[in-house]
């Protein structure tokens, strides 16, 4: 299947999505989000896919949401139509999603990257939420996710001024998992995605749920949930295979 705003392929057990609006620096419009959700729906159903990688171009992951699309909007239309509500589905996926970010990840582009489970950044990446400069605020979860990652002071300073951060600062602040040379970004991000896809699918999805619980409740609730997931995994064939392989000193062959 072909898409207007995306390039889609499969690299082994990894579903690879490339944002493809080069004339607009991959600015995110409704068509792009709808197509992305359609692709992610397919990857979620496809048993051969163990992880997902989303990337853009060397110049821009996504320079923001499409201002030309948003400029004529008004309230209550945005409220009644739940404008940007369809973005939430990206963050609700069960399979792990990695963002491989080069160049600009600003506004809606940064919000999309933050919806992924972690970010691997090229050394030329820049991140920010500059919506205040347009007289608006982020609307796809950027303020909430950024504040949880970097803390109140840095998030407040960035969103109120519209300042962006480079890749080195983003790594120090905990926004990105690691920074790699631009020329190595896709190879290293794919290697990370493939390493995840090689693990037990059940264990990987359980781990994703456990980490996400950190932001969703108290420590006591998170500990109880993690313990239940630990106990439940002993009912899976992958637990028997993984531990059996360790005892037998051989590589595990997890089910797909």
UniProtKB/TrEMBL annotation:
Catalysed transformations (reactions): a (3S)-3-hydroxyacyl-CoA = a (2E)-enoyl-CoA + H2O; a 4-saturated-(3S)-3-hydroxyacyl-CoA = a (3E)-enoyl-CoA + H2O
Pfam hit, one: ECH_1
EC number from the UniProt entry: 4.2.1.17
GO BP field: fatty acid beta-oxidation
Keyword Glycosyltransferase: no
Domain of life: Bacteria
Keywords for this protein: Fatty acid metabolism, Lipid metabolism, Lyase
Gene3D superfamilies per record: 2-enoyl-CoA Hydratase, Chain A, domain 1, Lyase 2-enoyl-coa Hydratase, Chain A, domain 2
Gene Ontology MF terms: enoyl-CoA hydratase activity
EC primary class: lyase
Role played: Could possibly oxidize fatty acids using specific components.
Family according to the record: Belongs to the enoyl-CoA hydratase/isomerase family.
Protein name, per record: enoyl-CoA hydratase
């Amino acid at each position: 299947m072909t898409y207007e705003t995306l390039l889609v392929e499969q690299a082994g057990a990894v579903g690879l999505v490339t944002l493809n609006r080069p004339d607009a620096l991959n600015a995110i419009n409704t068509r792009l989000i709808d197509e992305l959700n359609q692709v992610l729906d397919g990857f979620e159903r496809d048993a051969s896919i163990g992880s997902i990688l989303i990337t853009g171009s060397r110049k821009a992951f996504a320079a923001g949401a499409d201002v030309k699309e948003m400029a004529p909007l008004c309230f209550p239309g945005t409220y009644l139509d739940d404008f940007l509500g369809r973005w939430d589905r990206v963050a609700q996926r069960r399979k792990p999603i990695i963002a491989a970010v080069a160049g600009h990840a600003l506004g809606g582009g940064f919000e999309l990257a933050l919806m992924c489970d972690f970010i691997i950044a090229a050394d030329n990446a820049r991140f920010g939420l500059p919506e205040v400069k347009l007289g608006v605020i982020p609307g796809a979860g950027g303020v909430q996710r950024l504040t949880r990652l970097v803390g109140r002071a840095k998030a407040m300073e960035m969103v109120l001024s519209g300042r962006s951060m480079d890749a080195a600062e983003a790594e120090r602040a905990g926004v990105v998992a690691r920074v790699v040379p631009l020329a190595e970004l896709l190879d290293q991000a794919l290697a990370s995605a493939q390493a995840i896809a090689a693990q037990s699918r059940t264990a990987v999805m359980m781990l994703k749920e456990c980490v996400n619980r950190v932001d969703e409740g108290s420590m006591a609730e998170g500990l109880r949930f993690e313990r239940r997931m630990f106990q439940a995994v002993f009912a899976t064939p992958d637990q028997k295979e993984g531990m059996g392989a360790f005892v037998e000193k051989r590589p595990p062959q997890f089910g797909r």
